[in-house]
Specification:
Rossmann fold, 13 helices, alpha/beta
């Protein structure tokens, strides 16, 4: 996601000065493509850039790059910087980061993404933002270059709550669609016909539109891991617990992802990722 966002901003005449990835070879390849520096540390990115986008995998990674004690973290050069944080994280972590950044003289905005890598490249992301209204307004012109749908939700942590629910429902829809098509196949039904009827009735969903044909064709190249899906559903389950609610369907979907992980099917398909990178470079 981060790489394609950087490509999109470059195409929109924005200057990309540095990129960072914990896999330095990945950062070096992207930096060569974009004509910028492959930073050795997060701190170096904040040193040379005025606006920093972060896209990391989970709460632990976010706390690492915004560590208050690590001299290589983004906070080392946070003064007068704007951090736009796009990862799907626990709302409390977005609030924690917002507080730390302000304490170090910077500004922070969460810009949670409900889109795919293709939309990142095309600049058609759906972005849900949380933070101070004035920070959102200052970042809006830049975010509009990345987004076809840009919404301000509220204070720090609020957009992360919405994103958790979006992914919770999406994960449930994915599991339900897979089971529906699987049962249809077992009953000997024509799956193309079944998908068309799903699309025209109450069974319709965005997941049907984006993933239904791949499910039917058993095209299982993986660009978003079961481990990440479980993490996202887990955030929603934690929010439900805080609210004193049970969400049985979301719990069952989470448990199914955990079973996939236990079977060794939780990680990304490396060959699919390589193919995706190749296709991205063609575009």
């Amino acid at each position: 996601m981060g790489a394609n966002m950087a490509r999109r901003l470059r195409d929109q005449q924005e200057t990309i000065v540095a990129v960072y990835d914990r896999d330095h070879a990945t950062a070096t390849d992207l930096a060569t493509e974009l004509g910028c520096e492959a930073a050795a540390t997060p701190a170096r990115v904040a040193e040379v850039a005025g606006i920093i986008f972060t896209v990391v995998s989970d709460d632990a990674a976010m706390r690492h790059i915004f560590s208050a004690t690590d001299t290589e973290s983004l906070l080392r050069h946070a003064k007068d910087r704007l951090f736009i944080n796009c990862a799907t994280l626990s709302p409390s972590v977005h609030i924690e980061v917002d507080t730390l950044v302000r304490q170090h003289g910077g500004r922070s905005l969460e810009a949670c993404m409900a889109s795919s890598i293709t939309q990142a490249r095309q600049g058609t992301l759906y972005l849900m933002c949380g933070g101070r209204p004035d920070v959102f307004e200052s970042a809006k012109p830049l975010l509009e270059k990345l987004s076809a749908h840009l919404r301000y939700i509220g204070s720090a942590g609020e957009a992360a709550k919405v994103k958790a629910l979006v992914n919770m429902v999406m994960n449930c829809n994915t599991a339900a669609l897979a089971e529906g098509l699987g049962l249809g196949a077992a009953l000997g039904l024509d799956l193309t016909m079944l998908r068309e009827i799903f699309a025209q009735t109450g069974a319709a969903s965005r997941v049907l539109e984006t993933d239904g044909e791949d499910m039917q064709n058993r095209t299982h190249d993986c660009y978003f891991s079961a481990a990440h899906a479980a993490k996202d559903s887990g955030i929603a389950l934690a929010l439900a617990k805080t609210a004193g609610l049970t969400v049985p369907l979301a719990q069952a979907t989470y448990d199914q992802y955990q079973r996939l992980i236990a079977l060794g099917k939780g990680d990304l398909d490396k060959s699919a990722v390589s193919e995706l990178t190749f296709k991205d470079r063609e575009r």
